[in-house]
Amino acid sequence: MNSPELVILRELLDHEPAFVSGNVLAGKLGMSRVGVWMHMGRLREQGFEFEAVRSRGYRLVKRPAGLNPLLVQAHLKPNTRQIDVLCLPEVDSTNDEAERQLASGRTTPFVVLARRQTLGRGRFGRVWHSADNGNLYASFVFRPHLETGRMQTFTLWMGANLCELLANFCHIEPGIKWPNDLYFAGRKIGGMLTEARIDADQIRDLVFGLGLNVNSPRAALPPELARQATTLADSTGHPLDLNRLTAAIIGRVLSAYEQFVEDSHRSTFADLWNRFDLLRGKPVTLAQGARRFAGIAGGIDDEGSLIIRGENGRPQRFHAGETTLDRH
Ligand code: BTN
After folding, report:
1. Contact 93 CB / ligand 1 (< 6 Å)
2. How many angstroms separate the alpha carbon of residue 118 from the centre of ligand 1?
3. Who's near 176: CB < 8 A, 6+ residues apart?
4. Residue-wise pLDDT tens digits, 222-253
């Protein structure tokens, strides 16, 4: 059941910039206009402001800055699959919170969002810088009951979907650096961290973590990061509506997940990957622990392994590791 605040927000957003009459809102909610006024008061407490004009009704004139759970839900498309949205001001890591929520029995799917992480994690135990700067820190939680072998292409499929969404939403052409880095114009804009719990050779719990640099000014990033990373706001030249973007990402992740589980993604996967593959045809080095393999990247195979042709021209396949684009 949607809360009255959510119903009011949806109506006002759907009709922006027009006014919505108090009678229409009261009708939608099945309550008196005094009741509507009371729920609008609750929205005001969260930082929303409304313009009220006699005989025309209400419209939204100000919304709270930063991530807001009601706004995220209000922006979800009506056909979006049902998902529980948990939005926290601060957490150690959304992936860790997802684990705790699973352990306490929360039903899937759900997504954990946070304005800031104190112990944001990247791959290989690295720190993911997670200040409260208008960026996205999200963990999506599913129970797919799929064989472990099926999961090899999961993060790649999600990454390619997110690139397409960002291309449409922000009008930029991002790219993906195998296996989990999202890039724009030679700098990292996001990363994915997929973690799974396996039970009798089946994936029981799947946590898909996504960190995306959205609105923080690049100057606010620590200097070592600012050299290699960028943000969507810096790339597009203007701040983005974080709540609308988050809702669009939730919708896309849910539909991509559904296609993945139904196995209906195979027909589009290769094309989508090839469109956003940053490495194909370029000189790369792959690191696996202390070992290094250098060569020309040749895309991925059906299992999502990276193909690299070394000096002898023979293709080698790698299912794990970290890639660097060689500049020469
Ligand atoms: C990487 O590039 O190494 C992956 C970074 C993943 C960061 C996200 S932010 C949300 C989620 N919570 C975490 O602690 N990590 C992931």
Report:
1. yes
2. 12
3. 156, 159, 160, 163, 182, 183, 273, 276, 277, 278
4. 888 888 999 999 999 999 999 999 999 999 99
